[in-house]
Structure formats: structure tokens, C-alpha cells
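Lesson 9: reading folded outputs for more than one chain in a single document. The general rule is that every protein is listed as its sequence immediately followed by its C-alpha cells, and records are never interleaved. Here is the first one.
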Amino acid sequence: MDTSDNWSLAWTALHASLLSSFLSELNERKIRFFILRNYEGLPESNPSKDIDIILAPSQYAAAASCLEECYCRYGFQYVSVRRYGRAHCWYAANLKDKASIHIDLIAGFVHKGFEIFPFDELYEHTHPFKDFRVLDDDYDSVILMYYKLFAAKKLIPRYQERITDGYLKAGKAIEQILLATCGKKLGGELILCLQKKDYASLGAMTGRISRATKRYSLSRQPLQTLCRIGAYVAEQVFVLGFCPRRLQKFIAVLGPDGVGKSTFYDHLLPRLSFYFVGDESRIMLKHHRPLLLPNLGAVGEKAGIMKEDKNFTNPHRGKPAGFLSSFARMTYYWLDYVIGIPRDLRAAVKNDRFLLYDRYIYDFLIDPYRSRIKLPFWIRRAFAAIVPQPRLVFILLTDAETIFRRKPELTEDEIRALTAKYQELAKTHSRFVILDASQTPDALADEAVEVILRTFTNADGIIKC
């Protein structure tokens, strides 16, 4: 991994000043809000990667306008907003000061259309802390327990400690909330688990808790709950069914072997995690194709008709196949993209991840002999045109001599020929961006991440600094 610089997330004086300014503006505009958990050190310090601010639903637009202005004022010119129901995740990056921030504006607590605790009820159970408000221990503990169980079906140790601490401080009030939202029988079982600190049993009851709280929500607000459920289902169908392109963080990286793609990833991935305020689990890195269908060599070996060639030191070691065999091979690999890429994209969009492909179907345009395919260019181009296209494609290029020194698998003349083809490919669409791979790895990654920020942020023109 990149050890030449520190890309760990940190909360600095810049973040503190921005947050303090934002909270002051919310107060000045009389926007009702409170901060959920991990607030003790704010605004000066923040041990978490993000800040959850719960707002009155009717005041979300005003709060969003305040946050937009603050981001702009403090130089966070690259902003993206991802919505999950009523939760709006605001990510922002400031390249000049090498800073990133993530603030969630949540317009009331709703889970899959069910609102267990309306905002007004929660706000009544808050108290002042510095220049903002926070939840009382009873509601804070119950909300933490419910929503973390719903999300993961278990509670990690730090959540267990916080709930235990809350129960010691406000046990009777917590018990009343549990009995009201889950009923006498299940509520009693939950109380017993809290008394015994039996969090394993709590996790096992997640399904029952979910069903009970949904019935409670439906009984209190039947019409509103049904409408919210409909909106939630529609959103899921739209996001996962249609997988809109504006939500896809889909990137491919091309270049001759030896150009330095592996080193490029080592430097790029920490930067992506830093500027999009996450970790590398939010980045799906794949090689060449989805591999939903196995390599033809593996299929042939399994069928007993050939032995799979695993000698990869010479990419052009195999003789190109005839026309019919090449067409069959191309169709087979094309099907892998047609079936596998939508699956990968849905998984990435669902969890707001980057999908990075090291090489892609364009390899069949640039170097078809690598896969023993000998077909006219127009046929290969037709295949490549009818698969999902990345929103951004980096092409790493440098001189043939440098590439040959790094990886002498092909001759310098072969490398020059491939480089020329990559340059021609780059002219066909604005999604292709050539990067000079002769730069230092840090400079190359910095250039790439700036292009990524321009491509995947401010999609709706929300920031006009």
C-alpha cells in the first residue's frame, strides 16, 4: 500500500471551524436539529468518520442550503450527496488543504418506510450540549439498539457498552419505551436481556423486534406509513432495478503490461477512501471481466479435452483461433460481461461503492491475440459497444522503452503498436482519459483522483463556489 504519505482520516481545525459555522447557521435560521452519538468532543474533535444530524423533515431543504454554503466557504468544492430514504449523506473534498468530510442530514428516523419515533417525539427528549442538542440517554440507547440490530442483526462491543451505560442511567425510561414499541411479552424479554447484558440473545430476536416495531409504527400512522413504504419500495426498485448511471462509480484502468497499474492502485485506493470518507471495503477491484463464466481453458480441462495453459509470462504465446472459434470465444466472454457487469454494478450502487476494473472488454479491441481471438475490428467493436460502459476509463501510457524494462514480455515494437492503439481508443469518447505513467506514483494518483472527483461529484450542480 501507499506508504509515501499519510491518508488516514483525521479531524482538524478546518473541520472544527466548518462544523461550528454550520451549526451556528442552523441555530440562527431556527432549524430544529440534534446530533446523534459521538458528539462529546464536537466541534473540536470527532473520533467517528461522520456526523449524524437529525432534522425536522420540513426543514431539510433549508439545512441542505446551509451546508452547501459552508462547504463552499471552506474550500470543499467537490461534493456528492447520496440519498437513502430520508438520510442524505453529504461527502465533500478539499484538495488544496487535503481534507475530506462526511455529514449525514437525516430528515427524521425512518426504517424501510416505518417511522418508529417521529421527529417531534425525539426532539422532546433532547437536551442542550454546547451549541446544539443531543438525545436523552433513554431514546439514544433504544434507537442505537433498534437500528443497529436492523442493519447488522448484532451489536458490536462499543454499541453494547453504550447501551449498557444508557441502561444504568435511564433504565426505567428505556423499559417503558421497549414495552410501548414491542409490546408486553417481547418488551419484557428485551428488558431481561439488558439486565443480563445478553446481547447475543438480543441479536437473535432481531426479526421479532423488527416485526413488532413495524406493527407499532403502522398502528400509530397507518396512512403515512403505507405511503412511506410505497416510496421506499419505489426507491429500491429504481436504484437496484434500474441501477441509474448517475449512481454508478464505475471506473476501468487500461494500459500495456508493465506500465505500472498495480503501483497505481496502491496509491489511488487510499486516496479514494480518504476523499470519499470510507475505507477500502467500499472499493470493488476486479480483473478484466466478472468471471461469472470461467476461463475457456479451465472449462476445456474440466471437460477433459485439453490442459489449461497457465504460463502467463508471454501474453501472445497461443496461436489465434480460426474465425468460427474466435467468434465463439468472443461471444462467450461477451456474455460474461453482459450477465456479470449488471450484477457487479447493482452490488456497488446498493452499498455506494466504487467498481474498478483492471483492464476491461476494451482489451479485445487493443490486444485480441492475448485471448487467441482473430476477428475483424468492426465485429470486436460491436461486441464492446453493447456492454455496460464505465463512466471513466484511465489509460496509463509511457514510452515503450520504460515499459519493456519493467516487464519484457513483449517486444518494444509490440508495445509501441499497443500504445498507438490505446491512443486511438482515447479519441473515441470523453470517458477515456490518458495519464502519463512516467510521473511519480504519487503525482499520477493525485492527477487521477482529481479527475475522479470532477466526474463523480457535483452531479446535480449543487455547488457553485
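And here is the second record, again sequence then C-alpha cells.
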Amino acid sequence: MAPLAIAMTIGLLVLLSERLVRLLDVTLGKKNSIGVIFELLGYLVPHYLGLAIPAALFLGLLFGFNRLSKDSEIDAFMAGGVGLHRLARPVIVLSLVFAVLSLAIFGWLQAHTRYAYRAVLFTVKNVEVFYLAEEGVFMQADSRTFILDKLERGEGSFERIFLYDYRGPQGSETVTAVNGSLIEQDGDPRPVLRLNDGHRLKIEGRPDLRGDTKLPTSTSGTFKQIDTPLGKISGTVFRPRGIDARERTLPELWSILRGNEPVNKMNEVQAEFHKRLVSAGTILILPFLALPFALGTRRGQRAYRFAVALVILVAYHEIIEQGAVATKISQDASPYLTIWLPFICLTVFALWRFSIVCFSLRKDRLEPIYDYLAEIIGRCREMLLRRIGGPA
């Protein structure tokens, strides 16, 4: 449990840290940006748990049983008549618990949190860049160019604004004001820009530099106070959940596959449904796959056993991902061939290896591979040391 918990914690921190950097680019400087970042990261936790749980369980099994093997505790158990298959029972039950948890995460939680994440990100991106404004710096917000002075972020107020709105063939508008503020609206994510004591110049159309036509008409005037909403919102709310197949729960995907609900992209629904089932089922195989790699002889290459095991798991994950992609883009790619066949192959391989380790005394057939890898890496290290002048 200790290496499992450590691996899961480190894995989640690494994955969330990578996404944190991208979220900072979107939210930094906006109102309640810290709270928004933690909310978005919270919605990402179920997504990354789907990756972290199998990886952490696999590493926990490798390190836990490797320690039992190195300390000769497995030898003592077997000498007392307790076989490896009996020692594996608790971790098989543990993998069953994690498989059920993963099925709940893949089948229900990820669908809702993915939609919530996109909805919050949509709202954040549709807040104008005025929240990112700096004093005395020209800023661009779509067709608007503006500069502010004496900005008070806490109160949402500023002094002396110059704003130029270029509208192409429809002309342009220039506004200056003594002061202004950003006002929140109930029921509308867009703030209102309120300007006080200003001047306004509006030009109808774009001037013809050749001089063949008349100059466009213009109007100018002063105002005491004007309000304008900021932002670009196509509709009052974010789109409904379910446009993307990844936002559907497992029962909803099953309902679509049975023809109870019309959908345009049936391939995406098939790929998503079968991929989730396989991802949850893979966790049940991990004890049978990890235990043979965790055990080894006293003089065996244990580190290379771990390397081969991790390569197999990563390659399998990539095959499933690419199989799901192939099912989405091709009518001829059946999910039973692209997704379920690799799962069955890994299951047969894991059970075969587990049965050999538990119920026979034959030498591990992958042992020559570990020795070969150790020999290659040893030669490369010697060559490197000779080139840099170190001891061989």
C-alpha cells in the first residue's frame, strides 16, 4: 500500500502540475483566478485518476512483492506450504475493488466532470481581457485597442481610458473617458464596462485613400455615463452535455448503441463504450501480470524485469488508445478487433506467466531477455566511461 499511495500521489501531482501551467495562461489575472484554477483542477482529478490508479497499482505490486522476494519471505511461505497463488489473493481482491472504483470513475464521474471543466473554461475564456489590463500598456481585445491609467483591481475601477474599436468596412469608434469601472451582473457572466465623463467619435465607414469618393460621415459628442457589456457569448449558457461522446455516461452510451437515441457519430460512441470497459477490466489483470515480474532469483536482473514490465504496460495502453482512435475514424475497424483483442492477448499472457510462476519449477523464459538487456546497457556504460576518461 505504501508504494501504491506514493505512486498515485506523485502521478497525480505531476499530471495536474502539467495542466496547471496551461490553466495559468488562461485564468491568471482574472477575478477569483486562484479559486477558478482549483475548481478546474478538481474537475480534472477523475480524468487523471483513470490513468494514475492502474499505474500506481502496478508499481505497488511490483515493489511490494519484489521486497518480499528479496527478503526471502516468499521462500519461507512456500516452504511452509503457502503458495504464491494464496499470497496473491488479497491483492486480487484489492484489484477488484479498484476495478469497481475505476468503472464508476470511467462510467459516470469522468463524463460529468469533463463537461463541468469545459463549461467553466468556456465561461473564463469569454470574460474580456480588461481583467488582464495593466496600467499604461496598450492591450488588444478582439477589435478593441485600449489603454488604462491608475487601475484598481480590487475595486474594478480605473482612471483615464482611451479605447479604439476598429470595425473594418463599417468604420471605427474612439472613446475617451475620465474614469470607469467594471460592474458584475447577476445571471450574466459578462461584466459591464461603465465609463464616466467622456468623449466619443464614430466614423461611418472606411475612408477611400484614392480620393474618388466622399469622406465617410462622422459623429462626435460627449457623455456623462455609458454602459457596454464585455465578452463574446453565443447564447446565455454553455451547450448541453452530451455533444461529445466522452461526456456521456456508460448507461447513456449503451442506450445509444441499442438504438434508443439517434446520434450522428456512432463510431465514436462504440469506441468510447468499449474503451471504458476494457480500461476498467485491465485493472483485474494487473496482479497476474505484475507478480511474475516482481519475483526473481538472488542473482537475477530485477531492475530489468521492472523495465520490461513497464514497457509492456505502456505499450498496451498506447495500443488501446490507438485502437479507439481507429474505431472512431473508420467504419471497418471493429472495437472487438482494435480494443478487445489486445485486452484478450494481455490477459492470456498474464495468466500464462502467473500459472508458470505459481504451479511449476520451470525457469522464466524471459530471463535471457533481462540478461541481454543488462549486457547491452553494461557495454554502453563501459564505452561511455572510456570516452570520458573514467574507470571502466
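What the second record shows: The mean pLDDT is 82.
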